[in-house]
Amino acid sequence: MLDKAIHVKKGLTRNHLHRYDLRIKVKATKTEVEEFTALQQAFMKFFDICLQADQLSIIPPYFELDRKDKTVLDLSSKFSVSELDSTALLKRYFSRLSAWNDKGNVYCSLILGQNVSFHEFMDKARLALTKLDYGLFPKACDHEETSDVGWLLYSTHQQDEERMSEMISKLVNKNVGVKWRPIHYNDRSHKEPGDNPPRTYALHLEASTNKAVDIRLKLSQWYGSSSRSFPDGTKSRLVPPFQTMLSFSH
C-alpha cells in the first residue's frame, strides 16, 4: 500500500498518490542504446505533460523499498527523466516495462502524485496525450503486485465501480478493486486479420497477488454457479481469468 506520510514536504499526501498503467508509443529500434533512448524520450514527453498540468507533479519509485531509500529521489520538476541514464533506472519508476507489441505500444505501471484530481489532469492533458497516442489508466486497486480475481458475468454500467469495490471488499475483508474493462477471450471464429469482433466489457475484480485465489474462493458463496441471492440484488457469476481456466483444464 502507498505510504501514509510520504512526500508531505511537497504538499502531497497519500490521497494524492495513485497507481496507473501507462501506454506509450515508441518506434522500433535495432540496438539496446537506441531502445533506451527511445524509451527515455517517450517518458520525458509524458512527464513534461504531467508538469504542464501541475508543476508539483511527482513520480516516486514504484516499490516501497525504493521509496524508503532516502538516496532514491522522486521524479519532479527538479529531478527529471533525462537524469536516468539506464533502462534499469527507468524501470525503478516505470515498473513492469513490457516489450514492444506489433502496434509499437509499450506498457508499464507507475505512481503519479498531483495536486489535481485525475479528471482535472485529463481535462488539461487529454489532447497532448492523444496526439502522442499515449494512454493513462487508473489501476483498480493499490497494491505493488496485483492479479485478476475474475470478472462478473451479467455485470452492467449501472453497477458503480467504487460502490462494488467497497461492497466486495467488505464481503471478503480484503481490498478488492473493481474496474470496467474488456473481457479477454480466445475467439477462433475470427481468423482474418481485419476481422475484429466488437469488444465486450464487464466489471473485473483485482486484488493483491497473494490474496487473489483466497478471495476467488470466498466470493464463490455469493457469485458461484449455485448462488440464488446476490449481495447487491443483481444476478452475477464470478468467472475466473482466462489463464486460470486454462490451468484448471490441464
Strand and helix map with partners:
Layout: E1 17-25, H1 32-53, H2 64-68, H3 87-93, E2 105-113, H4 118-132, E3 135-138, E4 146-153, H5 161-172, E5 176-182, E6 201-208, H6 212-223, E7 237-239, H7 242-248
Antiparallel strand pairs: 1-2, 1-3, 4-6, 4-7, 5-6
Helix pairs in contact: 1-4
Ends: how far apart?
Answer: 35 Å
Low-confidence stretches: 4-9, 244-250
Order of H and E elements:
EHHHEHEEHEEHEH
What can be said about the biggest beta sheet?
4 strands, antiparallel
Proportion of helical residues:
25-40%
Structural class: alpha+beta
The tally of domains stands at 2
Placed side by side, the strands forming the largest sheet appear as 5-6-4-7
Strand content: 15-25%
The Cα radius of gyration reads: 20 Å
Mean pLDDT across residues: 83
User: How many separate helices?
Assistant: 7
User: Globular, elongated, flat, extended or rod-shaped: what is the shape?
Assistant: globular
| Overall strand count | 7
Q: Could you give a short description of this structure?
A:
The protein has 250 residues and is an alpha+beta fold.
Question: Mind explaining what this structure looks like?
Answer:
The protein has 250 residues and is α+β, with helices and mostly antiparallel strands. The protein folds into two domains: 8-138, no CATH class; 146-242, no CATH class. The protein is 32% helix and 19% strand. The protein has seven helices and seven strands; from the N terminus they run E-H-H-H-E-H-E-E-H-E-E-H-E-H. It has helices at residues 32-53, 64-68, 87-93, 118-132, 161-172, 212-223, 242-248, and strands spanning 17-25, 105-113, 135-138, 146-153, 176-182, 201-208, 237-239. The protein has a four-stranded antiparallel β-sheet with strand order 5-6-4-7. Helix 1 packs across helix 4. The longest helix is centred in the first third of the chain and has 22 residues, at 32-53. The model is unreliable at 4-9 and 244-250 (pLDDT under 50).
